[in-house]
Known about the structure:
The protein is mainly beta. Helices cover 0% and strands 75% of the residues. The strands form 2 sheets. Strands 1-2-5 form a 3-stranded antiparallel sheet, with no helix packed on it. A two-stranded antiparallel ribbon has the order 3-4.
Amino acid sequence: MSFAAQASVGTSYQLSDITELDFNYRYLYIDGVQSSLAVENRTSTVETEGTHDHQIRAGLRFNVN
């Protein structure tokens, strides 16, 4: 079993009646994993450390109703 979590925060700025400029930050954490496989009396093990991912994102949002 692994643990994962994410948090994000953002804001947008209205450019026109239908267009917004969007900025946000996202943090993602994925816990490490260890997995083993045995084939014909040989065992292979793969292990990863925890991952911390930081993203700063920007985009355009169109609100057409």
